[in-house]
Amino acid sequence: MSDVRQQPVFRFAPSPNGFLHLGHAYSALLNARMAHAAGGRFLLRIEDIDLGRCRQEYEAAIYDDLAWLGLGWEKPVRRQSAHLGEYRVALDSLRERRLVYPCFATRRDIMAAVARSEGKNGGPWPRDPAGAPLYPGLARALSAAEAERRIAAGEPHAWRLDMAAALAAVGQPLTYRRLLPDGRAEPVVAVPARWGDVVIARKDVPTSYHLSVVLDDALQGVTHVVRGADLEAATDLHRLLQALFDLPTPLYHHHPLVLDGEGGKLSKSLQSESLRDLRGRGATPGALLRRLGFAPDVS
Predict the structure, then answer these.
(1) Which residues, listed in sequence order, are joined to residue 21 by a DSSP beta bridge?
(2) Contact (CB, 8 A) for 177 and 252
(3) Which residues are CB-contacts of 169 (< 8 A; sequence separation ≥ 6)?
(4) FRET pair for 130, CA 20 to 30 Å: which of 42, 197, 200, 208?
(5) Which of 249, 258, 198 is nearest to 224 (CA)?
(6) Is the pTM here over 0.90, yes or no?
(7) Is 221 helix (H, G, I), strand (E, B) or coil?
(8) CA gap 22, 42 in Å, rounded
(9) Which residues contact 265 (CB under 8 A, 6 or more apart)?
(10) For residues 190 and 239, is the Cβ–Cβ distance under 8 A?
């Protein structure tokens, strides 16, 4: 009997902050199909660290929609909100190594600093791959004593990765393998510096998407990360975190996004048409699978 730990492991990891749309359906179906083809396992993970936006009704709808599509997954399902203590331990290890620092600035503070710099330099401020201005380093120079005083006073703060220190700690170029549609894997050089001093733990929880996803993938033995092309650039940062924690690096495949009628990205925040809406208008699982390019027997 083969060791299940050696099997390929795929996962679909939505956030319950809205109803699933066609893009989510495509990603879930693709993960399930690839897992089946590889003789592997298919996991469902609920990424619910955004405590202000995630709701139980959306989580229940995730299970319902995926089951309607004909998908099954292993149980129990890992819910990130139940593991905040584990993420805090990892964050504390980065603090002990002085690879993160507290940031008390608000978004308004950061944008004001960026505007001042742009006005002084007469040019645009550099931005990260997601289009956000790189952090201008407002808290980087705070003394340890001043930072501790403000933390002890209960001042809200996030934790930012000290990118220069993190890269120095790794001390070598970082690469990962990208899985191509024809099954071959090619090496990719990761460039995490383009993210700057990114938030690694939010003000409201001791983690972030980046920290949680890296730790969870390693803990769950995920061997293949299959997700949308909009997350490809984040792999550079994830590869750095894997190196800092001495974690294995999965194979990565970033699939094309499902777009709306105007060529835009589907989004919960934009209230893109949901699977719930489609079902309410009489859509069938078979019709939806065919629409997304899958045979109805994908499960």
Answers:
(1) 274
(2) yes
(3) 97, 99, 244
(4) 42
(5) 249
(6) yes
(7) coil
(8) 19
(9) 23, 230, 257, 259
(10) yes
CATH for the stretch 1-76+259-299 = 3.40.50.620
SS3 (DSSP) at 71: coil
**Which of 43, 34, 60 minimizes the C-alpha distance to 4?**
43
**Contact residues for 284 (Cβ-Cβ < 8 A; gap 6+):** none
φ and ψ of 125, to 5 deg: -75, 140
Angle at 259 between CA 187 and CA 273, to 5 degrees: 130
Apex CA 222: angle with CA 251 and CA 43, to 5°? 125
pLDDT digits (tens, 9 = 90+) for 186-201: 999 999 999 999 999 9
Under 8 Å between Cβ of 174 and 192: yes
Q: Say if residue 2's pLDDT is above 50.
A: no
Asked if 23 contacts 258 with a C-beta cutoff of 8 angstroms, the reply is: yes
Per-residue tokens: 90: 């990892």
| DSSP bridge partners of 40 | none
Buried-exposed string 150-178: b where 16+ CB fall within 10 A, e elsewhere: beeeeeebbbbbbbebbbeeeeeebebeb
Q: Which CATH number fits domain 84-104+139-249: 2.30.30.30, 3.40.50.620, 3.90.1640.10, 1.10.10.10?
A: 3.40.50.620
Q: What is the pLDDT of residue 183?
A: 85
Query: In degrees, to the nearest 5, what angle opens at C-alpha 251 toward C-alphas 275 and 37?
Result: 60
